[in-house]
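Cross-posted from the bioinformatics board.
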Amino acid sequence: MLEIKNLSKNFGGFTALSDILLNVEPGERLGLIGPNGSGKTTLINCISGLIQDYQGEVYFNGENLNSLVAHKRARRGISRSFQIPKPFTSMTVRQNLLIPLEYAVRADDLQGISIEEQADKIIDDLDLNEKSNQLTSGLTQIEMRKLELARAMAVKPKVLISDEAMAGLSSSEVDDILKILITLNETTRITIIMIEHIMRAVMSFSERVICLDAGRIIANGTPDEVIKTPAVEKAYLGE
Amino acid sequence: MSRNRFYIIIGALLVLSYLATHFVDNQYYFFAGFAILQLMVMALAWNILGGYVGYVNFGSAAFFGLGAYSAIVALNLFDASLFAQIITGGCFAALIGFGTGYLTLRLRGVYFAIATLALLVVSETLIVNWEFVGGAAGTYVLPKKNPTILGVLVVGKQNALFDNYKELLFFLMCLIALATIIICSLVENSKLGRGLAALRDSEEAAESMGVPTLRLKLFATTLSASIMGVTGGIFPYYMTFIDPLSAFNLDISVNALAMPLIGGTATWLGPVLGAVVLGTLQQIATVTISSEVNLLIVGLFLVAFVIFAPSGFLGLIEKYWKRGD
């Protein structure tokens, strides 16, 4: 479904990604781990189109996405949340969700349900009802994270990439977000790629995990296999 | 305000402005009214890019001046009517706006502002060196005698729509201002306006949520520039003389930017309020103190508002409104 072929990206003399090969299957739950600076966010920036001047190819459902800018990739069903939340601050929570529903979702995919109702349903699913008509400045950390996910869900994606949606949350809040993502994956069968530093979360969530280090994939397998790979231990803990 | 009531008020204001040209004798009011309305339209146009999208444009005077000078070119080449001059000004400025947008909208923040300032300097230099439109010395525009539209005499002493050009120009400027208000209000309440607001809040997030940010920015720049060009297109007739110094004056850019910032940038009401309050003060100061004190007033207001009321008049009103609840 999502195929990444020989993807490389340099920032000046710094190699952020080097020759990445990756296939993601429909409905898969993929974990993406790696130390800080290993290239995880750069990789999803390349997939979502915020970075376009990379080498290599990104295919989605057989279509080469290289020439497509980010909003066109969103309309094809690639959605992402941001590590540092970027809410539309002049809008209420509900209005934040109406933007992707109005701009990214095709009329057919709405299945005759109005975008307002769709927004309300997502707000209900994520338990944001109380804040629905409030500006985003009044949100708590967990609510802000939920809004990031809600907005990414409002794109009606086929692939949802969650970039550290749980950073800074308490253990029970992490469970909340995990539950949302697992329910979403099980009910709609959309592919979810989770970038996460909280190992407990990413290991319990993922069917497959890949580990990046210095722009290369150093491990690719089930959570158990990956965590036992010597290279992964070395990347995180040193020799 | 319901849409219907909004349009009724706009229509009533237009009728009122026409009636004023018949019942007000003192011509100074039309002269001053034109100046205030011109500020208002420039402020509204600036706000489309500066307020809705968050891109600060220092080159408003470039679009204004190019509008004015393309009107002069139309006049020199085709002996164009006032109406044709205004349309020419709008179209040419729209074209330049689109081109400028295409070249500069990848720049953000202060870099975009500097690029627009450069456009102003380049345009002025070009016109200064172009003899066909009068070069640095400027050129005169002599209003046509007994102009008609569809067989109706527009300006004349008897049986005409207006007694003189000052009244006609005042009415036209009212028409332009009201039309601009309608355009701004339509943009604000449309899918387009919501997309612009999203991209102002976070360009990356907007793009990732399906908003075609570059296309929307280009549209905003073109629309904003064309309205400024229309305002410029009518300007030579108002002054009956035009030179690069007055057409590309930085004061125009500063005023266009200051009025929305003082009034409030969120909706069309902000620039309108800013222009009415500051424009009137400027006119009073021009008559009572000196014309040079104008920019000082704007400057002091701007500093005061940026420090004490960053959301402008509208923000202040909203704040006290909420406190009252």
